[in-house]
Amino acid sequence: MRADYIEMFNRGDGEELKSKACAAHSSSMLAYNFFHWISADNMFEYEDTVYNRVFFEVRIPTISKSPAPANMDIVLVSENKKKWLMLESKFTEYFHKSFREMINLSHGYFIPHRYLFADQDEAIRTCNLVEYWNRKVDPHGEEFKSGYYDGIKQQLCHLIAIKNIMLPSGMAQVEAKVKKYNPGLERMPEYIDFKTILFDPPKVEVFKKEYDAYADYEKLCEDFCVSVVEKGACPKTVTVGVTTYSEVWAKMKSQIHNIELCRFLADRYMSLTDKV
Q: What is the DSSP string of 87-115?
């Protein structure tokens, strides 16, 4: 791993290289292995945009008085620097239907004036989105259903961080912090495509439990994307979606110059899915 990538991971709050990266099912290493090759010498064209830089564990402020910024697994910067593709990577996390982080979400996320954007209507719409998802993990509520809601909690925090970048009211102070946290990200984008990227296990009987967990979380992610639009919580310069490593691999594999890396990714990861 290059020195600058090691520094990116070490700056992140998850201490990925000290523990989690050693696991065979590390989603951070899945993300690194799939995207680290992108550069000016080997660009990646995805959905009509060409990307030539990649950053990992990108830290972005969320709300005021919050000690912990959001940590985005992958940020691809377009060749013209106008667009970022921001990806949250999930490998096997959704096998565990955890929702403790959503239940214990900081009370600041429910208070409009704690948000960094000056438009209070925007803050209220964001609070409404947070409350909508928080109600779903109330064990005594009518909407309660078991699921990997801690992943949705991450998406909420990431969306808030993205809005801090894209909304003019919060741009100045946020831009300074983003540049301080992430050396090399010298220019904020005009557009952001924010996606959760899921590793999709094979749909076979022996992996039925794993596939069902994946399908359940994929549906939660799709519901999240719909709710962001319905609650009016998404700026016009931001798109929110969900994709899979299989879908990205289908577009990526012919663009990687390093044949050995391509074989490694195919053997190490894509052999575990039946969608390619």
A: EEEESSGGGS---HHHHT--GGGG-GGGB
Judging by DSSP bridges, how do beta strands 44-46 and 49-60 pair with one another? antiparallel
| Domain that includes residue 103, residue range | 3-272
What is the C-alpha separation between 91 and 200, in angstroms, rounded? 8
Burial 162-190 (b: 16+ CB within 10 A, else e): bbbbbbebbbeebbeebeebbeebeebbe
Q: At 23, is the secondary structure helix, strand, or coil?
A: coil
Query: The tokens of 225 are what?
Result: 């994307």
In the numeric block, the tokens 């009211």 are attached to: 169
Contact between 55 and 274 (Cβ < 8 Å): no
- Which H, E and C letters describe 120-144, residue by residue? HHHHHHHHHHHHHHHHCCCCCCCCC
Per-residue pLDDT of the chain (276 residues; tens, 9 = 90+): 666 667 767 666 555 555 554 445 578 899 999 999 999 999 999 999 999 999 999 999 999 887 689 999 999 999 999 999 999 999 989 888 888 889 999 999 999 999 998 888 999 999 999 999 999 887 676 666 778 999 999 999 999 999 999 986 655 678 888 999 999 998 999 999 999 999 988 777 778 888 899 999 999 999 999 999 999 999 999 999 999 999 999 999 999 999 999 999 999 999 888 655
CA 276 to chain centre: 23
Q: What is the dihedral of CA 82, 9, 220, 78, to 10 degrees?
A: 20
What whole-number distance in Å separates Cα of residue 116 and Cα of residue 64? 6
Strand-strand pairing, 191-198 and 83-90: parallel
User: Which residue has 């925090």 as its token pair?
Assistant: 157
Helix (H, G, I), strand (E, B) or coil at 56: strand
Q: How many domains does the chain have?
A: 1
HSE of 268 in the Cβ direction (CA atoms, 13 Å)? Answer: 14
